[in-house]
Amino acid sequence: MPSAVTEPTVTVVPAEFSDGVPAHVESIGPPDAPLTVVLLHGWTLDGRIWHRQRAALREALGDRVRTVTYDARGHGRSGSASLSSATLAQLGDDLAALLERVAPTGPVVLAGHSMGGMTIMEYAHRHPEAFADRIAGLLFVSTTAEGHTHTAYGLPAVLARLVRLAETAGAEVLSRCGSCRPPHLLMQALRPSLRWLLFGADCTDDDVRLAGSAVSRARMCAIGGLRPSIGAQYRLDTLAALGDVPAAALVGDLDRLTPPPCAESIADALPTTELTLCPGAGHMLMLERPDEVNTALLTVTTRALKSRLALTA
């Protein structure tokens, strides 16, 4: 069951992405904290999915850490994405720009779920010097460095190929729908499908509602436009070049979108990665397995803090 922790006080930080699109950014903790932790959400979701991790960081580490979450362009309360900007490359540049504006100094731990993890890899690929200079720890949750290579939706291979074809065609249609959001009645009808696709054996109704609420806020242009680059990304070589940065990866053994081989290949490419398999869990580990995610995040963050203190001693 989810840990009972109290959501700390949140400050909304005025910010924009690199091209002027408004960014919804939330911060917990002092701006001059020794370490900043940035939590990146997945495709069609928003920063609210990290609410248990934000609370756990505040409870365990207090003012030693500042926690930042933001909604990616075209998601949640951030501005809409144009079709040309709905790419992982743009999201990597957005992360670089937000770090410069919201956390311009000091070490940073990056934690990414699904598309958020892929955004971190894109940032490392496109901004290697900034990454090497700033990033003190990594957490990858239910993500991949190999696009849709391992995605089978929990189905036999033939059916998985048919589903991917249908998904690709649907994404092309959605990409042409501009800044519209999914209609409420459609989201109500899709709720059982979302429950099956995103969650494992056990989840609460509140968690399913939160995931559905996040999807309902995403712009259809972003949902459809991002799908091609998500499916095509390959960043194992980028991970292999990251050196000895502390890292952890978690995956559920019932994850239908980024199954265990995705996390295993990340750990193989980046040997500092501590891999955790969560039995019975699906894609939404922050909600399904908050204790395991919190433990991994706190471990990486504490190591980064100790390194920071050692450097300044």
Automatic annotation (TrEMBL):
Any one GO MF term held by the record is: hydrolase activity
Xref: SUPFAM superfamilies: alpha/beta-Hydrolases
UniProt entry tagged with the keyword Transmembrane helix: no
* Residue stretches making up the AB hydrolase-1 domain: 37-294
Q: Which InterPro entries match?
A: AB_hydrolase_1, AB_hydrolase_fold, AB_hydrolase_sf, Epox_hydrolase-like
Keywords assigned by UniProt?
A: Hydrolase
In the UniProt record, which is one GO cellular component term?
membrane
Keyword Hydrolase applies = yes
What is the name of the protein in this document? Alpha/beta hydrolase
Q: Which organism is it from?
A: Polymorphospora rubra
